[in-house]
Amino acid sequence: MTYVVGVTGGIGSGKSAATAEFEKLGITIVDADVVARQVVMPGTPCLQAIAEHFGNQLLTEGGELNRKALRQRVFSNPQEKEWLNKLLHPAIREEIISQLEQADSPYVILSAPLLLENGLEKYCQRVLVIDAPESLQISRTIQRDDSPKKEVEAIMKAQLSRSERLKKANDVLNNDGSLEQLEQQVLQLHQRYLAATVAQEK
User: Fold this and answer.
1) What is the pTM of this model?
2) What letters, b where the CB count within 10 A reaches 16 and e where it falls short, cover 161-175?
3) Is 177 labelled as part of a ligand binding site?
4) pLDDT tens across 50-82, in order?
5) Integer Rg of the chain from CA
6) Residue 164 pLDDT > 80, yes or no?
7) Percent of the chain residues topping a pLDDT of 90
């Protein structure tokens, strides 16, 4: 049985920076955002179903999914959004489980912004929350995505609150300092998870 550490955190908390450090230590990362893109690649059953349901105008000239057009179609239409979720969520879940099972590092990280909101923590032995003050989350996201502040705040409202997320955490990484401090914390957690995998095998 693979030892899985779920990694989550609010927008702009620095999940990618943290998982990149684990990856440097040789740990396999299964990223839910990447999987969500993989299940709608050209030639996949999901993309075919989307094109049949919404029409080919949702595809680019190269036959890929036009994400922006899809977002606009489902954004103001709850029924279409529900149809899309029913199609994609099981496919994403199945692919995540498959990738977790194939991982060959001592433990594997499942990185998902909505890990707790979508119930993915049930596949994890530990939940690690990457935490940062909300003001820092906002300034980082504005800088990274060039998004208006209101948009960033709306995304944060749609996610679990910081306090709710911290309540569900087994481990917390405070990502409000330098990259060196982040590396140090990742290294400590890495040792802890390695010890836990050894204990599990006994």
Assistant:
1) 0.89
2) ebeebeeebebbbeb
3) no
4) 999 999 889 999 999 999 889 888 887 889 999
5) 18
6) yes
7) 80
Given a cut of 80, whether residue 1 has pLDDT beyond it is no
Query: Is 10 annotated to bind ligand?
Result: no
63 is in an annotated binding site: no
- Which residue matches tokens 């927008």? 11
pLDDT at 142 over 80: yes
Residue 32 assigned to a binding site: no
Query: If you write DSSP's letter for every residue of the chain in order, what string do you get?
Result: ---EEEEE--TTS-HHHHHHHHHHTT-EEEEHHHHHHHTTSTT-HHHHHHHHHH-GGGB-TTS-B-HHHHHHHHHT-HHHHHHHHHHHHHHHHHHHHHHHHH--SSSEEEE-TTTTTTTGGGG-SEEEEEE--HHHHHHHHHHHH---HHHHHHHHHHSPPHHHHHHT-SEEEE-SS-HHHHHHHHHHHHHHHHHHHHHHH-
6 marked ligand binding residue: no
Q: How confident is the model at residue 24 (pLDDT cuts 50, 70, 90)?
A: very high
Q: Is 147 annotated as contributing to ligand binding?
A: no
